[in-house]
Amino acid sequence: MTRISREQLAARIAADIPEGSYVNLGIGAPTLVADFLPDGREVILHTENGMLGMGAAPGAGDVDPDLINAGKQAVTALPGAAYFHHADSFGMMRGGHLDVCVLGAFQVSQAGDLANWSTGAPDAIPAVGGAMDLAIGAKQVFVMTDLLTRSGESKLVASCTYPLTGVGCVTRVYTDHAVFDVSADGFAVRETFGATVEELERLTGLTFNAGR
Amino acid sequence: MTRISREQLAARIAADIPEGSYVNLGIGAPTLVADFLPDGREVILHTENGMLGMGAAPGAGDVDPDLINAGKQAVTALPGAAYFHHADSFGMMRGGHLDVCVLGAFQVSQAGDLANWSTGAPDAIPAVGGAMDLAIGAKQVFVMTDLLTRSGESKLVASCTYPLTGVGCVTRVYTDHAVFDVSADGFAVRETFGATVEELERLTGLTFNAGR
Amino acid sequence: MIDKTVMDAASAVAGIPDGATVMIGGFGRAGQPVELIDALITQGATDLVIVNNNAGNGDTGLAALLAAGRVRKIVCSFPRQSDSWVFDDLYRSGRIELELVPQGNLAERIRAAGAGIGAFFSPTGVGTSLADGKENRIIDGREYVLEYPIKADYALISALRGDRWGNLVYRETARNFGPIMATAAAITVVQVDEIVPVGSLDPETVVTPGIFVDRVVAVGSRSWLRDGEFVGGVDLEGRPVDAGVPA
Amino acid sequence: MIDKTVMDAASAVAGIPDGATVMIGGFGRAGQPVELIDALITQGATDLVIVNNNAGNGDTGLAALLAAGRVRKIVCSFPRQSDSWVFDDLYRSGRIELELVPQGNLAERIRAAGAGIGAFFSPTGVGTSLADGKENRIIDGREYVLEYPIKADYALISALRGDRWGNLVYRETARNFGPIMATAAAITVVQVDEIVPVGSLDPETVVTPGIFVDRVVAVGSRSWLRDGEFVGGVDLEGRPVDAGVPA
């Protein structure tokens, strides 16, 4: 069965982000998407710690401790950037002004529920950050994830067993096997990277619409 | 019976505003208070349309249409001023950050209720502006008013008959006859400008504490 | 390339439909987007609901829009001014609806719409007629009234400078409602004195980031700064300088 | 003459009592007022409730305050980080209480305290365990959860420059929580790189007006900028650069 790499997946997501979009890329793998936005396409990146117009990572010698992203990694500011405080930044998110956010996931349910902040393990240190704000705030919530966990369980589920991040919030799920839209009657296969719908159903234990 | 002029009253109020205070002077007579703040005493004036550090009126030739106070009169900005938008400005007021505001009044009740935005006349055009926000927001609400209306009725009342601006919000009333504190059991005469407490009681029809 | 600039004020206000709710920036004349309002009058949309702090000054700008009979209802805090004769006449003759909102509640309700807040408890107006019929609650010993967001289909605002991304800076107290109205409208239209290249506004000083802005049009110096002269404003006493003849 | 400047960090944190609720600015290390926190450790106040986005990084600043056993409870959104070993150990051994708040609700609750809002309905967290036991309401077809203000006795924040009136400007993403925490505390204490004369900050660019500020102390360049070298921060991957030995 054909799978695509994390970089290919990032490129696939980047291709779906039109010029002029305001986009928040979640901590971790979603950050990769920025590297695959085509040259010359102006997409404005938001980082919830207080900036629009975030640029790429600086050279190792140019790290500025005051200029970081939500993952606390060093970044740069593009010409046209703007800084703002946390209440303004999260007002922007909660108020529905971001076009797209791309988030990782532990689980996504057929109803579009997202679980990505806690596995509910009793000894885990809980940490939610801005995940819940992004989940309910962006106009489109894209999830970027492997279809299966390392132990082979499907991250697409009938209903989430992990603690929820947001209810009915996910628009589309980009996985290493296929792209799924969350539709009124469950996941619709939008595009596969080689697998058949039957194979995807076998892997996930779910029933899919063939999609468009 | 001794009365003081509006200018004397403004000076009297100015004398009670300590250095370092953040002060909002309401539209109309309260604006006069600024002219009587002693030279060298740093008092920072707030205007609710979006500035701290408001200065005096400009020369007639230096009027700047973008730089006005809440009464829409031309003003200046002192060194150390700051501009901000309306939500921030009223957050500052509502959040209790102003030390003093000075407001005009139609009526003030013994309980500290203020009526200063509407006489309730059926053909009047209602307009409230920031009066209600100032009334409930400042740490101390000073009222500056004549004790009596032109027709001789007391503006200090047992309870307001005009529409309220705020409930139990007035700290002190500066009138042309005397200064009154709003206390737990009604008005207390704090200082008179010649009248006796008995004369004030006759004018207002109220019973006062002699004050401190 | 992102380019939110439009050629002229007519393009800036294109598409505003009859019946739209339109926020109009400004406090009195300061920050009032007169050129956009003039274009809106020409454009012809009617039956509008207008959100503004006031209800027009003199015979220009918002007052002219009212005089043209385009406004069904106005939401504001302070309609009555020395030069609000246009509104006064409409109101007294029952030809315009008024929703009077305390100024801070007006500002916070606009901000709430932009920030995705469903409703909030405000201490302003408690116990007054402007809180009649609203939900009250005592929180931590203090009484509050529940206020809901005010959102709009369009916002028309004025700023000093903008770039093609829509980043804005304002001038002095003309900032007033611009930054919050920009967040609360589906489509935000901005007139600026000057459009500057992307990157020339210091990111530390941008007041409205472009995410809140849809269209930007340069109008040059605003009407009451024409030829460097102050026209159409108020004098030191707040009286209109070139009031013209009351309607 | 108004003069909010104080001589040193020790004077800046004087008077913070045991049991106080103290907001501490910063997002991770950016904007964290390390010099004030060091002074607070020396000052000795204990049994503190700390409000911060995180729960300390490495062994310096907030992490050192935690390690010194001075914190009873922390209110934050994201305690777990690559370099949060001090908190992790305290939490796992039951020696610190945690109130986990989604980041935007944390920010908005702090703002609400500063802006006199009694409570607000937020869509964030609805249907999740972090909204358990909170009041829900459907407004205009959407579900919200009622959130209350977070206020503090003291706020310790970091800014780039300040004047003797307390006006502040920040630097880049180090702005983060400073402006809202300054509004939400009874006493706001600020460390700045540099104190500048009143009037030298452009009124258009002041982010925190002095009304929100009580004490300002100049500390020079912050620790992780010492001698122009970046020390004590994170590398491009977010890993601490001079992590030291985990506690």
Low-confidence stretches of chain C: 226-230, 242-247
As for the CATH topology of the largest domain in chain C, it is Glutaconate Coenzyme A-transferase
Distance between the termini of chain C: 47 Å
Topology, number of strands of chain A? 12
Order of secondary-structure elements of chain A: HEEEEHEEEHEEEEEH
SS-derived structural category of chain C: alpha/beta
SSE series of chain C: HEHEHEHEHEEEEEHEE
Q: State the distance separating the first and last CA atoms of chain A.
A: 21 Å
Q: What is the CATH level 1 assignment of chain A?
A: Alpha Beta
CATH superfamily annotation of chain A: Glutaconate Coenzyme A-transferase
Arrangement of strands in the largest sheet of chain A: 4-3-2-1-5-8-10-11-12
Largest interface: A-D, 49 and 58 residues
Oligomer state equals heterotetramer
- Got a strand count of chain C? 11
Helix fraction bin of chain A: 10-25%
Family (chains A, B): Belongs to the 3-oxoacid CoA-transferase subunit B family.
Keywords (chains A, B): Transferase
Protein name (chains A, B): 3-oxoacid CoA-transferase subunit B
Organism (chains A, B): Microbacterium candidum
Would you kindly provide a written description of the structure presented here, covering whatever features stand out?
The complex is a heterotetramer, with 2 copies of chain A (212 residues) and 2 copies of chain C (247 residues). Chain A is of the alpha/beta class. Chain A has a single domain (6-204), classed as 3-Layer(aba) Sandwich (Glutaconate Coenzyme A-transferase), CATH 3.40.1080. Helices cover 16% and strands 26% of the residues of chain A. Chain A contains 4 helices and 12 strands. In chain A, the strands form 2 sheets. Chain A has a 9-stranded mixed beta sheet. In chain A, β2 and β3 (51-55) form a beta hairpin. In chain A, α2 packs parallel to α3 (131-137). The longest helix of chain A is centred in the N-terminal third of the chain and has 10 residues, at 6-15. The model of chain A has no long low-confidence stretch (mean pLDDT 95). Chain C is of the alpha/beta class and 247 residues long. Chain C has 2 domains: 9-101 and 150-236, 3-Layer(aba) Sandwich (Glutaconate Coenzyme A-transferase); 115-148, no CATH class. Chain C has helices at residues 9-12, 34-43, 62-67, 85-92, 103-115, 178-184; strands at residues 21-24, 48-51, 71-76, 97-100, 120-122, 136-139, 142-147, 152-162, 168-169, 185-195, 215-218. In chain C, the strands form 2 sheets. In chain C, strands 1, 2, 3, 4, 8, 9, 10 and 11 form an 8-stranded mixed beta sheet that branches. In chain C, strands 5-7-6 form a 3-stranded antiparallel beta sheet. In chain C, α5 (103-115) crosses α6 (178-184). The longest helix of chain C has 13 residues, at 103-115. The N and C termini of chain C lie far apart (47 Å). The chains are: A alpha/beta (212), C alpha/beta (247). At the A-D interface, α2 and α3 of A face α4, α5 and α6 of D.
